[in-house]
Amino acid sequence: MNTVTRLGGFALGLAAVFGAAYGIGQVAGPAAPVAESRHDGGAAHEPGASDPGEHDESVDRIPGGLLVSDRGYTLEPVAAPAGEFAFRIGGPDGRPVTRYDVAHDKRMHLIVARRDLSGFRHVHPDLAPDGTWRVASPLVGPGQWRAFADFTPTGGEPLTLGVDVTVPGALTERPLPAPASSTTVDGYTVTLTGTPQPGRTSPLTLTISRDGQPVTDLEPYLGAYGHLVALRRGDLAYLHVHPDGTPGDGRTRPGPAVTFLAEVPSAGSYRLYLDFRHGGAVHTAEFTVVAGTPTAGTPTTAPTQSGPAPTGGADHGTPGHGHN
Fold first, then answer.
1. 149 within 8 A of 85, measured Cβ to Cβ
2. 41 φψ region: left (φ > 0), alpha (ψ -120 to 50), beta (else)
3. Which of 40, 52, 86, 324 is 20–30 Å from 210 (CA)?
4. What total of structural domains would you count in the chain?
5. Are residues 186 and 157 in the same domain?
6. Which residue range is the domain that position 24 belongs to?
7. Distances in Å between the alpha carbon of 76 and those of 48, 79, 90?
8. Rounded to a whole number, what is the largest CA-CA distance in the chain?
9. pLDDT in tens, 169-226
């Protein structure tokens, strides 16, 4: 099969599964604004309910990324040419949103990770006048992926919506790496101090060195000296962790330590992804951490599984991480 045919098959397959994935995302939460969930401590009132003052912690504490639709905004996949990833955010009025506030130096953060928590990528799409976001596809290999749109619509609150996307092709799921306090990436050693605690804010400090020497000249990236995302194993609940301090505030140093304030919603295994810039390039260090005591019988690492090889797909690279 020649390259054009392979890519054409991939584009058709991705368009089909993208539509199916939209339905999968809807299973995680209502697409219609009947009983919208909130993440900010307030609960939206369901029409017809007897007491708008009733407070349901199970609703308003849903982590980000588990819903395809929230507070009237919906993540809407858009068919795109091979090698491109496109989507819109539908607003409460049914129209594509075209105005966004800048958050962490960007109007849209698109994060993708495979369901086995490998293949993490963090990119920044371009917005077209019709409200369509487009970017070179960050889906770097076959598998079941979760795509997260992290944004703030102008006049609205910060949101993270998520949808599943399947890239066809042969794959073998990767086991979740065991918890460790240190990892290496691109010649850098990154050490983690601190352990997340379910239901409360915990400091996590990541210290960066190179060739045995502390890195003291980190470069700002997305408004900070580090950018940390946490994904919960299993449902891939998305936690955007905030740094303690910002460049230029008179107290935050450019390394070697970067501290974040994290609050995880439950006990269990999480994968942390730290983006930092040094030497003009962005690097990503990854960690597995265990918060609290997982329930009996819950493994802290994922088993290796072999999945079927759907027809019509092509191998588009080895899962990894990257930025744009």
1. no
2. left
3. 324
4. 2
5. no
6. 3-46+54-167
7. 28, 10, 7
8. 64
9. 987 888 999 999 999 999 999 999 999 999 899 999 999 999 999 999 999 999 999 9
